Amino acid sequence: MTLEVLVIAFIRIAGSLPVLRWPFVGALIAILVDLSDLLLQDILDLGGLPDYQALDKGIDQVYLAAFLAVAWRWAGPARTVAIVLYAFRLVGFVAFELTHERALLLLFPNVFEFWFLLVAAIGAPRVAGWSRRHIVAVLAVLTALKEFQEWALHGARLFDSIGAVEFLQLVWARLTGG
Q1: Which distant-in-sequence residues (6+ apart) come within 8 Å of 137 by Cβ?
Q2: What pTM was computed for the model?
Q3: Residue 87, CB-side half-sphere exposure with 13 Å CA sphere
Q4: How far apart are CA 177 and CA 156, in angstroms?
């Protein structure tokens, strides 16, 4: 285990904690901190990350568990759907850990994260008034969005050959016309 792994793990775990106090804003912080490890691995030179995907997916379990702790306090369908989606992603995580096959992450998309953000933003009592049909429709949209993200990351691997700093430079060049 390198010092770089420890630093990134510490930052990621610390970034997971605000969700326990401020569900929506804390979830946004946790997700942004999750993305920060890509930048950190480009900037830090403390021994490298031997297996980024395994580290990332393992530490993801910390913020997902914090999300689950919050979701457990919800009532009705908001809570039930959250628990089912969490368990579904956990199965995918375990399968990924056993096989290291990234395609499994496409079969088990992290819809829990998107559901959590939605419910944290609008409130569990509002979700309680939704019909089953409405919940299914919302889950279909969230799943489609998450599948696209999982495909970009793990199917097409669009970001495997580009570092975060290089990506930010490309975005900056596009925005500024440079």
Answers
A1: none
A2: 0.86
A3: 7
A4: 27
Can you tell me the distance from the alpha carbon of 135 to that of 142, in angstroms, rounded to the nearest whole number? 10
CA 54 remoteness from chain centre: 14
Residue type, 26: G
> How far apart, in whole angstroms, are the C-alpha atoms of residue 131 and residue 128?
8
Alpha-carbon distance values, 28 to 3, 36, 81, 146 (Å): 26, 12, 20, 16
Kindly report, residue by residue over 122-176, the tens digit of the pLDDT. 999 999 999 999 999 999 999 999 999 888 877 777 666 666 667 777 778 888 8
For the chain, helix (H) and strand (E) counts, in that order, are 9, 0
Distance CA 130, CA 139 (A): 12
| Integer Cα distance of 100 and 118 in angstroms | 30
DSSP state of 100: -
For residues 48 and 56, what is the distance between their CA atoms, to the nearest angstrom? Answer: 13
Residues 37, 12: contact at Cβ < 8 Å? yes
